[in-house]
Write a structure and sequence with these properties.
The protein is mainly alpha-helical. The protein has four domains: 9-99, no CATH class; 112-173; 182-301, Up-down Bundle (Zinc Finger, Delta Prime, domain 3); 316-404, no CATH class. Helix content is 50%, strand content 6%. The protein is built from 17 helices and seven strands. It has helices at residues 9-15, 68-78, 95-99, 112-125, 132-141, 146-158, 164-173, 182-190, 204-211, 218-225, 237-261, 272-286, 303-324, 335-355, 359-368, 373-382, 401-404, and strands spanning 18-23, 29-34, 39-42, 52-54, 83-85, 230-231, 289-290. The strands form three sheets. The chain has a three-stranded antiparallel β-sheet. A hairpin with a 4-residue loop joins strand 2 and strand 3 (39-42). Helix 5 (132-141) packs parallel to helix 7. The longest helix is centred in the middle third of the chain and has 25 residues, at 237-261.
Length: 405
């Protein structure tokens, strides 16, 4: 059963799928699975082995599929029939809740030897003479996709193309387009032995294709990880520093181009390949080397966390500026002015009376400036720095300010 056809709560519970179990005896059980397309009755569990396969469960998302994942989990909780859930993207957020109720089995791509033995056995039964070295090229060009390997072999045999050189050339032309995740791409960007379609060093266009795997995310990965690259064939610290400097300059140029591309006034998306050259191709070829291995070898961009913090601070300062605008005679209407001229004095005027135990003065000040309890926490956060701790920490805990205001 494909989840692309049965995804919503309604399709599970009302229209398309009804799963009922009821016991007749302690040894037998009647099962009825009814769908719009499937009607299946098993009189006893001992009469045979049955399993329900739910394919493409990672495709359940959005408003159209609302409630589908939860209903599938509920089915797993009450069913006596084994349910196999299959997905393509195991790391998807929507799979996390389902994974808690499943035995997580990971499957890896089959090796060349495994695919070669299976395809050669098929070719032998079909009386097809297929050279092993040609089959290896076919497997590599299809990225170990068994279905594409069999389809390509069948197509070439049907067309009468049995020449080894012709098969090799066609195998290279029938390469499968792949979508790599960012962690795989970043290693290919800096890899010293990256191979192109002809088995040699990747061409310029092939290196640029790595950028277009995700042109929003890959530059951030390059910026985050280029300092961790172990440069190949050089141990001169001065030379490595020069290469790092050149890569940093290219990344900075790419950032300027990115701002121009995404500007509301210009919107020059035709510059996207130029950004790819400066953000990915040039740093990768300058710092040709390897990244540390292991799960922590590639760092996720810290830009996302810092950008989230900046957005939250901007939102907080805008709210504070609106609250203080009347009391400051519009002096704090600008969030930047609030941060530079008002935040520190206000935090001092709030905490100083509290240190002396004068709660009434602190509360009166808050009332005069129309500062809410949430605003106080925001002001303290905005005035906290690595060398300047939160001023509220110096207030005696016995002062019950937070309960009186």
């Amino acid at each position: 059963m494909k989840q692309s056809k049965f995804r919503t709560f309604r399709s599970y519970s009302k229209h398309e799928t009804l799963l009922l179990f009821y016991h007749q005896t302690s040894m037998t059980c009647n099962l009825m699975v009814w769908t719009k397309y499937i009607f299946f009755i098993a009189s006893t569990l001992n009469s045979g082995r049955h399993v329900l396969i739910m394919d493409e469960v990672d495709g359940m998302a959005g408003n159209e599929d609302r409630g589908g994942m939860q209903e599938l989990i509920n089915m797993i909780k009450i069913t006596q029939l084994p349910i196999i859930c299959m997905c393509n993207d195991r790391q998807a957020i929507k799979i996390r809740s389902l994974a808690n109720y499943c035995l997580d089995l990971r499957f890896h791509r089959p090796r060349v030897e495994q695919i070669k033995s299976a395809v050669l056995s098929i070719a032998c039964k079909e009386n097809v003479n297929l050279p092993p070295d040609v089959l290896t090229n076919i497997i590599d060009s299809s990225n170990h996709d068994i279905r594409q390997v069999i389809n390509n072999v069948q197509m070439w045999c049907s067309s009468g193309l049995i020449d080894s050189e012709g098969l090799k050339a066609d195998a290279l032309g029938a390469r499968k387009d792949l979508h790599l995740n960012a962690f795989d791409v970043i290693r290919k960007v800096f890899a010293p032995d990256i191979s192109g379609s002809q088995g040699s060093v990747a061409t310029f266009n092939e290196s640029l294709d790595l950028f277009f795997q995700d042109y929003n995310l890959i530059p951030l990965f390059v910026e985050e990880n280029y300092l961790n690259v172990r440069v190949h064939n050089t141990h001169d610290d001065k030379k490595i520093l020069q290469l790092m400097s050149q890569a940093a300059s290219d990344i900075a140029t790419a950032d300027i181009i990115s701002s121009t591309i995404r500007s509301s006034r210009t919107g020059s998306w035709s510059l996207l390949p130029v950004q790819g050259v400066f953000s990915t191709v040039s740093p990768g070829r300058t710092l040709r080397g390897s990244l540390p291995g292991g799960p922590g070898g590639v760092s996720f961009p810290s830009w996302f966390g810092k950008n989230s913090t900046q957005s939250r601070i901007n939102r907080t300062t805008s709210e504070l500026a609106a609250h203080l605008r009347l009391a400051t005679h519009c002096g704090s209407s600008n969030p930047l002015t609030l941060l530079l001229d008002y935040a520190t004095p206000i935090s001092e005027l709030i905490t100083r009376p509290l240190k002396e135990g004068d709660i009434d003065s602190a509360i009166q000040f808050l009332i005069n400036y129309q500062i809410t309890r949430e605003d106080v926490d925001s002001i303290m956060e905005l005035t906290t720095w690595p060398n300047r701790p939160n001023r509220m920490l110096s207030v005696d805990s016995k002062v019950s300010y937070q309960h009186t205001y």
